[in-house]
Structure formats: C-alpha cells, structure tokens
Amino acid sequence: MTGKATRIHLLSLGTPQMRAFHLTWMAFFVCFFAWFACAPLMPVLKGEFGLTPAQIANINIAAVAVTILVRLVIGPMCDRFGPRKTYTGLLALGALPVLGVAFAQSYETFLAFRLLIGAVGASFVITQYHTSVMFAPNVVGTANAAAAGWGNAGGGAAQALMPMLLGAVLMLGVDHTMGWRVALLVPGVLMLVMAVVYWCFTQDCPEGNYSDMRARGQAITGSGKGGGWESFRMASANYRVWLLFITYGACFGVEIFIHNIAATFYVDRFGLSLKAAGLAAGSFGLLALFARALGGWLSDKAARRRGLDARSTLLFVLILGEGLGLLWFAQAGNVTLAVIAMLLFGLFTHMACGATYALVPFIDRKALGGVAGIIGAGGNVGAVAAGFLLKGLGDLQQTLTVLGVLAALAALCAIAIRFSAEHKAQEQALYDSALAS
C-alpha cells in the first residue's frame, strides 16, 4: 500500500500518481485512435484496393489477432521492466506500422501492416497495470475504469474524426488516392510524440522506477520471484483469471468488433453517407468517456457496501444487459432504432469493461501483470472469434444476433467468480486501511 493514492485529484498533475493517471489514458487514447483509424475509411479503402467481403473480413480479423499474443506478453513485461519503459517502447515501435499502412500499394501489404498495427491494442494492459499500482483499493476500480474509458474513446474519436480529416485533406486540393494516405499519417506522428512525453513525465510506481528500486535492493510487489514469467505462470493457474478471460471477450471483444464493422454496417444496411455513418459509429466509442468510469465507480461502491463478491455480481448484471441490448440492435428495423439500441447496449458493454478491470487488481496481487495481460488478451480473442463468426455466417445481422446470445451466456462466468474467506479478509483489511488514510 506504500504511496498509493487513496483519492483521485482529477485536476492535479502534481503527484506521480496523477501524472501516471492522465498520461496513461492519453497514451491509450492515441494508441486506440491509431488502431481504429482505418476502420471508418474502409468504404474508401474497399474501392481503392478492390477488396472482396472475404478480404475485408481478413483485415478486420488481422486488426485484432496479433493483439492476443502481445497482450499476453506485455503484462509480464510491465512486471519485469516497468510500465514506463514498456509503454514508451510500444508507442515508438507501434508507430512504424501505423505510418507504414499509409504507403500500402496492395491488399497484401495493407493486410500485413494492419496485422502489425494490432500490437498497439496491447496499450490497454499497460494502462490498467499503471493505474493499478498507483491507486489504493478504495479508488482503484474508478481509476482503472476512468483511465481505460477515456483512452478507449480514442476508438470512437477515430470513427468520427478520420472521415472529417480525410475531407479536410481533400479540400486542400489533394486527390482522393493520396488523401486517405495523408490522413493515416496523423495517428503515427501522434504516437511518436506521446512516446517522448510518457518517457519524460511518468515513473513506474509511487516509490520510483523499477530499475532504480532493484538497484537499491527494494522488492517490487506483484512481479513474482521469477520476474515476468513467474507472474504469467501464477496468473494462468488461477481459474478466476480464465472466467474473466471469457467475460472480457464478451464485452471488450464485442466492443472491438462493433468498432470495426459499425460504419460499414450503417452504410450498407441503411444507406448512410460515409460522414453520417462515421458519426453514428463514433457515438458508440465515445460512450467510453463516461460509461467505463461509471462501471468502475459502481464496482467500488458495491464493494464498499457488500464486499468483494459484489463486484462479480455487478459484472454479471452488466454483461447480461449487454447481451439483451445487442439482440435488440441486431433486429432494429430503421436507423433511429438502430442508433438507440447501439447506445443502450454500448452503455452496458463499456460499463462491463470497466467493472471487469475494477475486479482485476483483486484477483492476485502477486501476479498483477500476468492477470492483467491474460484477461486483456481475452478481449481480443472475443473480437477474433466474432470476426471468424461473421466470415463463416456471411451475414452481419445474423452474426450480431448470435453474439447477443453468446454474451448473455458469458454472464454466467461472472457470477461463478468467488473468493475464499481468507482472501476476502485480506482484501478487506487493505480496503479499510485505504479508507482510514
């Protein structure tokens, strides 16, 4: 508990905890903006490269597939090297394929760069890790959810802003073929700028940077005796991790899938213009500005009144609501009902994501990086599975219906998460200590 913040002073940058909070959501925002920058331009890119429906499905799957592996690795890397070095490296290296996609000349090269861009989706794990080590149990759920939600809004911002950015470039006299390439350079440059800022103004934990702490012979809670690999091994042996792996696949996996198909869905099903479809799709992502934080805040409040098990119960309710809302969205007969349904199930989806990572810090404090990485990877497994489901069924409306049913069933995994009396007593003691502070 040494040095962890027991309050969120939202307008402050004067402490390491609040600098990490603000810069980690900003870095996450930039990464998600870059990750989904191509999605709202897919109707344009479809014509540019002459893409078939199967090729578009491959691109959507590639966009999230590699993130599974990188998320599994990135959590233990945070334990080993610290979130500051890990995030800076991801931002700098991840900018390369983001810039590279603007120079793609064929479907094959575009697919390859899109695959590599998926690595920046692992930024989420570092964000959750960094806030988890900076904030005490009484506010960590809110801190995790708010940082993730505001950063996650980068996906919604990309949906709304990339078509506008393309329009602005075209107004400057750039031809259409070159215009989308210029627009896609912007996210890559932003990532490089953010890498420098993150390196200069953050530290790994309240006590300092991991490398300095190890040099002083100071133990680092959460990294395990064997460093990153030990953290991963301990996490993978915990059944609660795999239940949350499934539930996160049901909420964040659906969220990513909607980001990738929403603009195309509105264009093809309701005949909206690219700009109107981008705004409609972007509203789903922008819910993250408050909905994730709301999920984490409700989880903290529930835990204060009824203990650790209340966090699992809340997650069950939220994922069930997501599944039912998704079924309504799939059956909506006009664009107005579709947008209303999307906002409703999107609210439950984002809140469920926030409630999931409000629970993550309490699963195993000795393997935080491994826990955060495995559960984070579950979100991308869900997105990849949804992509293959769409490819197999060949019908988007039918795919959304099946996903709604599966999400409702996945809620049962949340209610199955329980903790021993000893574990709950230990966590309650830490919680009471944080409140006393």
UniProtKB/TrEMBL annotation:
InterPro entries reported for this sequence: MFS, MFS_dom, MFS_trans_sf, NO3_transporter
GO MF, any single term: nitrate transmembrane transporter activity
Sections of the chain in a coiled coil: none
Membrane topology: Multi-pass membrane protein
Key word Transmembrane helix present: yes
Biological process per Gene Ontology, one example term: nitrate assimilation
Name of the protein: Nitrate/nitrite transporter NrtP
Organism: Cupriavidus yeoncheonensis
Lineage: Bacteria, Pseudomonadati, Pseudomonadota, Betaproteobacteria, Burkholderiales
Gene behind the chain: nrtP
